[in-house]
Amino acid sequence: MSSFQQKNSGAGNECGCNLEEKLKEIEKLRKTVNRLNNVLEIRNNDVKTTSKRCDNLRKECEDLKKMKKTPGEEDNLLVLEKNQMLEEKDDELYRLRKELHKKKYVVANIIPHHCKIVDKSRYFDGVVIRENITYSEKRKERNSTISSFNLLFSPTLGLIRAINKSGNKKTKLGKWYHFRVNDPRRKNNGGAPYTIDAATTKDPHRVRSLRGTEIIESQVVFLLHTTLDYGALYNEYFEDKCLNLILFSEALRLSIRNQLLFKHGEVKLSMKIKLREDYEELFRYDHTRPLFEVISVTVDNTFY
Predict the structure, then answer these.
(1) Taking the mean position of all CA atoms in its chain, how far away is CA 131?
(2) 277: DSSP letter
């Protein structure tokens, strides 16, 4: 009897241990389920929130498409768009100007084919840069009425002579003239190139000054008011439509750069310009060489 009770008590203990383990396991599983439910709830909430945001954004887009703008709003939007476009264009223009100033300039005004005979019916403009230049004795022997000649600069031709016969001068130093050309060269192409000796003016008559001039010690000095982009202040030359390419020394350019507060945009300048010392040899060697140089320059905000 006693042995039977011992067996039963041992079985009861074993069942009790198993029950406690099962209860612990069940509790552990319940906690896991709760944790997973919480995670699932968070994920569901996140999905709902994200979905709601998408719906709201979609609705806003649809509303924007359907919304009719008032004339004032449309005008404001157009102004903003145009301002933005203008800013982009200004930036592009400034970039192109800087790029342009870096490139080698080729004078466009000088006749491109200097071996071609100048059209006798065409008129040109020019300014007298030297006067009373003596002809050689050989030339005087050919035509005794020739006493001397004046030298003109034309933006289109370069240098050209104006004949003075028997002391009768038709042109004066520093004045601008409108004229046709006598060109004695015979071949129209491939013949003798155009030089100072190749042609002369015909029937010159005074015109208004294309560039202001003053005479200083028998030399013509040009007065130029011009606007240059800031990038041009780093280049050795700049272009003028009446004087073509002009030499601009580094010392003068540096003095202007040091006076400016802003390192971009356009700069208004007043200049005095004269012929270079070796202008005649430069022209004979290469028609595209600059024949003038800046001798003084100041920043000028008084002209428009």
Answers:
(1) 39
(2) T
Q: Mean per-residue pLDDT for 103-108?
A: 43
CB 115 within 8 A of CB 137: no
Q: How many domains does the chain have?
A: 2
Residues 6+ apart with CB under 8 A from 59: none
What residue numbers bound the domain in which 278 lies?
Answer: 213-299
Q: Do residues 162 and 232 both lie within one domain?
A: no
CA separation for the pair 128, 161 (Å, rounded): 9
Alpha helices for the chain (secondary structure H): 2-66, 71-102, 137-142, 250-259, 279-285
Q: Whole-prediction pTM value?
A: 0.60
* Contact in structure between 208 and 166 (CB atoms under 8 Å): no
Q: Report in angstroms the alpha-carbon separations of 141 from 132, 136, 138, 162, 190.
A: 18, 9, 5, 18, 30
Q: Which two tokens stand for residue 142?
A: 């050919």
Which of 59-68, 114-123, 156-165, 198-207 bottoms out in mean pLDDT, i.e. has the lowest? 59-68
Cross-strand partners of 140: none
237 and 248 in a single domain? The answer is yes
